[in-house]
Structures are given as C-alpha cells and as structure tokens.
Specification:
Blueprint (H helix, E strand, L loop, with lengths): L5 H5 L5 E14 L3 E5 L7 E4 L7 H5 L6 E10 L7 E12 L15 H5 L2 H4 L3 H23 L3 E2 L5 E2 L11 E2 L26 E3 L4 H11 L1 E9 L12 E10 L3 H22 L1 H16 L11 H10 L3 E4 H9 L22 H12 L3 E7 L19 E9 L3 E8 L4 H11 L7 H8 L5 E7 H9 L20
Parallel strand pairs: 3-5, 6-10, 12-13
Antiparallel strand pairs: 1-2, 1-4, 2-3, 4-5, 7-9, 8-9, 10-11, 11-16, 13-14, 14-15, 15-16
Helix pairs in contact: 5-7, 5-8, 5-14, 6-13, 7-9
Bound molecules: adenosine-5'-triphosphate and magnesium ion (3 copies).
Adenosine-5'-triphosphate binds next to strand 11, strand 15, strand 16 and helix 14.
Keywords: Aminoacyl-tRNA synthetase, ATP-binding, Cytoplasm, Ligase, Nucleotide-binding, Protein biosynthesis
Main location: cytoplasm
Catalytic activity: tRNA(Asn) + L-asparagine + ATP = L-asparaginyl-tRNA(Asn) + AMP + diphosphate + H(+)
C-alpha cells in the first residue's frame, strides 16, 4: 500500500480505515505512543502501538531516530492538541537507530553543537522548520519575479570579472597546486589554465546581470555567491545565496519601491504558507527570551515583527540625515558607539545601522545617497553635488536585528563618467570591455539591488546566527561536509 504524508493525514477531513505512514521516531512513550515525523510538517502524528501484541524485541527497536512504517486506522485522538492519531495494526522497523549513539536525542542542544552536526540537525524540530521556511521563501522569490515577467538569468559562478570584491575573492585554477607553472616574471602563468586567465568564484552576478537587463528589460539572478570573509560574524558566510534583480529604465526611487514591495511580498508569502513552522519558531524564541533580563527582551513576538514589516512603509532617509542623527546619539545612556562617526564620508558599521533601525526609527530603513568614495564604481553619480561631497544613487536597506539586508543602486549609465571613474580607481577598462559595451550601445538609466537570501531567512525565522539558516554553513574553519 502507498504511504501518506503525515501532513495530509493530520489535515484529513475524515477518519480512515487503513493508512500507512512512514517516518522517523521522535519519541516513544510508555512503550505505546510513537511521535512520528516525516518532515512534511512540524507536527508529529501520534501512533498508538498495540504493545501487548507486539514482540518485546520490536518494541525495543522503536528508538529516537529509527525509521518505521506503520499501518493502521486513522482515528480521532483523545489527546490534547491533535485531531487524529493512528491505531497501529502493523509496525515495521525500516532502519534502526542506536539510541545511545544518536546525537539528536529530544533534549535541548546548543546551537553550536547542532552546527557541528549539520547533517543531523535537520532532524530537530527547529531545523526542520527553518529549512521548510527557507524552501518556501525561495519559491516565493521566483514566484514574485516570474509573476511580474522578470527573466531568470544564471550568471557565471566562475568569472574573470574581479572589479568588485577586492580581497574577498576565492581564486579558481585548474592547474596542479603543487607545481604551478610560472611565466618569465616568476608569476603563476594563468595562460596555461583551462580558462586561459585568472578566474575567481563570483562575489555577485550584478555586472553580468546588467548586460542582460539591457536586452531583456527586467531580469533577476538567484544563485550562490562566494566571499572569502575572513572574520567570524553572525551575518557573514563564505558561501551565500544572493537575489539580484536588475531593471532597465528604473531609477533609484523605482529601485526602492521594487525592493520594498518584494520583501513585503515574500514575507507575506511565508506567513501565508508556513504558519505552523513560524508559530513553532515564535514559541522557541519566546522560551529564549524568558532567559534574558526583562530590559533586553524583544518588545514584539516573531509574528508581530513580521506583520509590522508588512504594515509599515520602510523609512527612507538620506545618508547625510543619518550621519546627523548618529553624530548626536548615545545608543545607551552613557555608552557611545564603539566606532564614532564624526565626519561626513565615513562608512556605517552594523552598530550604527542597527541603532537607526532599532532605536531611532523603530522600523526598516532605506538609506540612500551615500558618499561616492565609500561605494562601488558603477553607482550613478548624483548631479549637482558639492565638490568634495559627491554622492551616488545608492541604497542600503537596514533591518532590525540584522543591519544591512540589501545593497543596491541606480547604475552609472553615462559611458564617459563611468570610464573616468574606472580610471581614477585603476580599474582595467580592457578587462571590463563587455561591461562598458552596455554603455556604448543603447545605454539607459537602470537600477538593481542584491539581497542576501540568508539574511532574509534570518529575519523571517527569528534566528540570530546566519550559520543556522543555511543547510551547510561555510565559514572560516568549517567546511567538512
Ligand atoms: P556587509 O556590509 O554586511 O558586509 P556588503 O555591503 O559587503 O555587506 P553587498 O556587496 O552590498 O554586501 O551584497 C549585497 C547583499 O548580500 C548584502 O546586503 C547582504 O544582504 C548580502 N551579503 C553580503 N555579504 C554577505 C556574506 N558574507 N554572507 C551573507 N550575506 C552577505
Ligand atoms: Mg561585506
Ligand atoms: Mg555593506
Ligand atoms: Mg552593501
């Protein structure tokens, strides 16, 4: 007989004579009650074993983590919190799990311990929920853009474009590492490489994405990006997924509208389609909050926080206004920021971003018009800015608990201005001839942004460390899987 998913059994509209469920044992109580989970939902189905007619040997093998198949009747449950349970008539152990050795016993594990067991942590309630929410969010990303007629573009992962991520690139070579061929100057001869030049893992698909936007109009990428982030923060991974829409004829305001609408859409989609998982994660968070001193507890629950983002416009603030606010602020009664901002032109650190969002405006913030010298070369220079105070049409979206979640801009569409900028920064024009071609042939205003998918998942699940929202985190010193 075909088995039915636990989710469908729990959502059944009637009791049923004979059903088959397969899954993994979460707990086995009183030699009688199996809490069975198959990953289709956060909820377990209770399977009531006829222990008098089940051999002792079999009962002993019903341990946490074991996979089992049960056949029985779906009946109304007398137990609290569940509509149905299975009265088991036939039970088969599919795969044993040594209870002594199985690391995922149903007790509270530290997140650090779970990270070391990334291949097994998904068997816990919390990680099952996080990974289902992540999956629904990625579907929502595609749905949003596809419904709007955007074209999905796969930009290259191995790329020669290295204009952006100075110092953060993973190098790619097909040459044997123990015997790298050298040229006459004694440097590694990449001409002998499979690709015939120096290549890297991509840090962003934007530059290639722009070339497609300038033909297809509206495009988006959604793929892995790599940055050799040699620091341990709770918001950076060496391998993360980025969503990068790019739209021809959009300016900075259109870009802000698109980003805000997109973020609200995907959060709403998760609320509508991951209700049980989000409620579970909310409960987990409430438990965690209880162990904190009253003053440090969050004012809003997870679902309140998500709904707040849907119901409130993001506050749009220029960099210059933000600096004025930060210069005069003391985040705690006495303590100043560890990095003080006294001068216009300084880059914001995450403590400033979070202060603006969490303490000052108390809502998501879109910061725009940043000083040109702290932003990338391709951003559109604002007209009429004071000499020495040039700004670009850049925007960063800042979220509570996270800081930067989006970085974007209107792009410099003027060939001459772009070339001047590249020359001033020593960026090789020959190498980026293909990028400059978009400005040589039918250039136009265009804009886009990059959203770090894991930072979005972090916000939606209420987790606090980015390592806990990606299946297999890549951070300095951890890539054993
Ligand atoms: P940050 O200031 O946090 O280091 P960034 O300004 O270097 O981010 P961008 O180059 O603007 O990042 O990339 C666009 C988005 O990608 C960011 O807004 C963020 O959401 C995400 N992102 C950047 N670096 C990482 C990383 N190492 N791990 C996870 N997400 C990242
Ligand atoms: Mg960075
Ligand atoms: Mg940044
Ligand atoms: Mg950025």
């Amino acid at each position: 007989m075909k088995h039915t998913k636990v989710k469908d059994l729990l959502n059944s509209t009637t009791t049923l004579q004979e059903v088959n469920a397969k899954g993994w044992v979460r707990t086995f109580r009183n030699n009688q009650f199996i809490a069975l989970n198959d990953g289709s939902t956060i909820n377990n189905i209770q399977c009531v074993v006829d222990f008098e007619n089940t051999p002792e040997e079999t009962l002993k093998r019903i341990t946490t983590g074991a996979s089992v198949s049960v056949i029985g009747t779906l009946v109304e449950s007398k137990g609290a919190g569940q509509k149905y349970e299975i009265q088991v008539s036939k039970l088969e152990i599919l795969g044993d799990s040594d209870a002594e050795k199985f690391p995922m016993q149903p007790k509270k594990h530290s997140l650090e311990f779970l990270r070391e067991n990334a291949h097994l942590r998904v068997r816990t309630n919390a990680f099952g929920a996080i990974m289902r929410v992540r999956s629904v969010l990625s579907y929502a990303v595609h749905k949003y853009f596809q419904d709007k007629g955007f074209v999905y573009v796969n930009t290259p992962i191995i790329t020669g474009a290295d204009a952006e991520g100075a110092g953060e690139m993973f190098q790619v070579t097909s040459l044997p590492l123990d015997n790298l061929p050298k040229n006459e100057e004694g440097n590694i001869d990449f001409k002998q490489d499979f690709f015939g030049k120096h290549t890297n893992l991509t840090v962003s698909g934007q530059l290639e994405g722009e070339t497609f936007a300038m033909a297809l109009g509206q495009i988006y990428t959604f793929g892995p990006t790599f940055r050799a982030e040699n620091s341990n923060t709770s918001r950076h991974l060496a391998e993360f997924w980025m969503i990068e829409p790019e739209v021809a004829f959009n300016d900075l305001d259109d870009n802000m509208d698109l980003a805000e609408d997109f973020i609200q859409y995907v959060i709403k989609y998760a609320l509508d389609n991951c209700g049980d998982d989000l409620k579970f994660l909310e409960g987990r968070l409430l438990e965690e909050e209880k162990s904190k001193p009253q003053a440090d507890r969050s004012e809003m629950s997870l679902l309140e926080k998500l709904n707040f983002v849907l119901e409130n416009n993001f506050k749009r603030v220029s960099y210059t206004e933000a600096i004025d606010i930060l210069r005069d602020s003391t985040p705690n009664k006495k303590k100043k920021f560890s990095y003080l901002i006294n001068e216009w032109g300084a880059d914001l650190q995450s403590e400033h971003e979070r202060y603006l969002v969490e303490k000052h405006f108390k809502c998501p913030v879109i910061l725009y018009d940043y000083p040109a010298n702290i932003k990338a070369f391709y951003m559109r220079l604002n007209d009429n800015t004071e000499p020495g105070r040039e700004t670009v049409r850049a925007m960063d979206i800042l979220f509570p608990g996270i800081g930067e979640i989006v970085g974007g801009s209107e792009r410099e569409e003027r060939y001459d201005v772009l070339v001047q900028k590249m020359e001033a920064l020593g960026i090789d024009k020959e190498e980026l001839y293909w990028y400059l071609d978009t400005r040589r042939f039918g250039s136009a205003t265009h804009a886009g942004f990059g959203l770090g998918f894991e930072r979005l998942v972090l916000f939606v699940t209420g987790m606090t460390n980015i390592r806990d929202v990606i299946p297999f985190p890549r951070t300095p010193g951890s890539a054993e899987f």
